[in-house]
Amino acid sequence: MGLFIEVQVAPEASSKPAVVKKLVEVCPVNIFGEREDGGLDIIESNVDECTLCELCLDATEPGAVRVIKLYDQGQALERSA
Amino acid sequence: MRFYEFESKALLAKQGLPLPAVSRVAGTPAEAGAIAREIAGPVVLKSQVLTGGRMKAGGVLFADSPDECESAAEKILKLEINGHAPRGVLVEGRAPVAQEYYAGVIYDVLAKLPVMIFSDMGGIDIEEVAEKHPQHIAKLHFSTILPPSDFRAKELVSSLGISGSELNRLTRIVAQLARSFTQYSLTLAEINPLARLEDGSFICLDAHVDMEAEARDRQQAILEELGIGPDETRQARPPTPFEIRGAQIDAVDHRGVAGNVVEFDGDLGLVIGAGGGSLTLFDAIRRHGGKPANYCEIGGNPSVSKTCELTKLILSKTGVRKIAVMMNVVSNTRVDIVARGVIKGVIESGYDPAHKIAIFRIPGSWEQDGFKILSKYGVEYCDRSVSMFDAAGRAVAKMQQA
Amino acid sequence: MSILITRDTTFIIQGITGREAVNVTRECLDYGSKIVGGVTPGRAGREVYGVPVYDTVAQIASKTRVDGSIITVPAPFARDAAFEAIEAGIKTMVIVTERIPRGDVAQMVELAKLRAARIIGPNCLGIISPGEAKMGGLGGRAEDARKAFSKGPIGVMSRSGGMTTEICNTLTAAGLGQSTAVSIGGDAIIGSTYAELMPLFDADEETKGIVIYSEPGGPMEADLARYVKEEKSRLPIVAFMAGRFMDEMPGMRFGHAGTIVEGKADTAAEKIQRLEEAGITVAERIEDIPALLKKRLA
Ligand code: SF4
Known about the structure:
The structure holds three protein chains of three kinds. By secondary structure, chain B is an alpha+beta fold. Chain B has helices at 5-13, 29-39, 66-78, 126-132, 150-158, 164-183, 220-226, 241-252, 275-287, 304-316, 335-348, 353-356, 367-376, 388-401, and strands at 23-26, 43-47, 60-63, 89-93, 97-108, 113-119, 137-141, 186-197, 202-204, 207-211, 257-263, 268-273, 294-299, 322-327, 357-361. Chain B is built from 14 helices and 15 strands. In chain B, the strands form four sheets. In chain B, strands 5, 6, 7, 8, 9 and 10 form a six-stranded antiparallel beta sheet that branches. In chain C, the strands form two sheets. Chain C has a seven-stranded mixed beta sheet. Iron/sulfur cluster (SF4) is lined by residues 7, 26-29, 31, 50-56, 67 of chain A.
């Protein structure tokens, strides 16, 4: 968890190597990493760099990734149209 | 980026420009003496500094014997000029001069072309010649698409009424200077004086070139050859440790700019941008009677960590009581990202953002999110309805209360 | 009307697949600009927000009319990109790239002149004709650009991209819209100076007044003053000069030999004096610009 942003990934998604690969690929600020066992690593030092670009939401099933704005009463980022 | 005289000469010699037979830098009086013994005649010693006014300051001396040369070198090596310690002393043989000329190349930024400048009154300040003896100066623009051609140099020199073998020799020198200018990405190439000796031959007695900083990558080969390392910035004033640290923060991360950090004596730290906005804001702070602790330019949407590190650097400076975070209405930099970086930097420095940040005035892209972040931390902010000038005024007023 | 661009201007983006270029593509399309293609060598066949990507400029220019190009490639490739656009017959180039060596800029500008083409920049954010089109990053996202810029009678020229938006935002808030705002670029040599754009504004019936933003260094303000006097411009001009503090900073002045070519108009104070002598009003603060302009327009 960062100071401003928290990123949560549902276990169903973070356990799938294909989803992990996709997240690593799309995030422009490298918040997602791939562990050696193929599992998901959230790189805490980058979380506050999140640009709210929604690319991680677009890349996964609805609800799989939650990007939370800690400065906005815990509101989660939603996909714009 | 300035070059020392000895470097300038080494660079110009590569295009075949004529230098004194012996022209070497000594780091100690003994070395200078040895060079004088080799020359076996009268010598001139010149302080190697990156500043003007060398002659007046006593940085140029003459000697008739190796012993005299050693004691002159000792004096010069100890002499600081405008706060610059010499890099060494250049020792050259002295020959009888029949006439001195000036040759230079520079960009004319209105014509957007390089221009060759030539005068048959060398050895003095070219500005003075331009003012008092305009008929002794000739200027001629040349193409950047055609190769720098001899005929242009010939036209230039002959326009001062010079002919005969003097014309032909000078043509070669001026053309070589123009070619050096183009080939080495120079913004200034100057030979002053360019001397005609009594035997009719020419040599460059003093030379000065500036290379464009933007071209350093392209010119790496010649820079290496001259021994100029990438760490040598060659600014007018050497950067302070605070400024060096600022440059490092900017260089670590390629995302956006948090640069041009310059140190001042005041108590109000500034996180400001972008280029033009910084100039405007710095003026505004001073107009309100504020005392800036630094200048800087953030822009191009710097990362949170970059802004955070810059904030920490500014807060670590002794005497800084508060910081003001201000920019013009932003389009490609994001308000929320800057707000995050600054607040993080303040918190990591162990302070309360509500207290440490005098004012935050960055309206524009992603301002809704930015303002939410600022409200959460109790930071005073303003939107585009408050001018840059008034925002600066608010910051200064807070400093005066505190 | 406007100068340089309208809603019918067609342009391409060279370097379209770069991070910032992708943003600019999106912003310009959303603002209503007509982008007819992009170029990134080796990436032909791709699309960026529906804009087809090609390998060469000529591939686009041979198929369709191309009025302009935004060049946003890394500095070492900028000269070649500009040459490619000019030789493909394009007449208006906006060069966004920063830190291009001066010799390269001089070459691009010289070739453009030979081919009767115009360069805006380098190191600029482009052009916007509010309500018509934008060509470059000025104003950012279309929704933000619509907040800061509005259609009207004021021409704006600025050496700072960011301050272009700030000034236009102030004008908009005071009910003064803009015909066209041009971020002319901050480098020593630029494709189009104030004085070179003035004839376009003078010829544009809708433009009734001009605002310029300037900084210390260089002879461009003196040249504008000369233009205004010699060409008897019909347009009242209000100028804002930033960086007055630099006058007190030793070591920030410009090169010696420079002054003999450029005239001694380097400091902010000297520039202000020259501008005022030419009848140009100099504003002390950005927020004073609208009132000064209205007075001159009345
Ligand atoms: S919203 Fe964008 S920046 Fe943030 S985590 Fe998702 S992909 Fe990364």
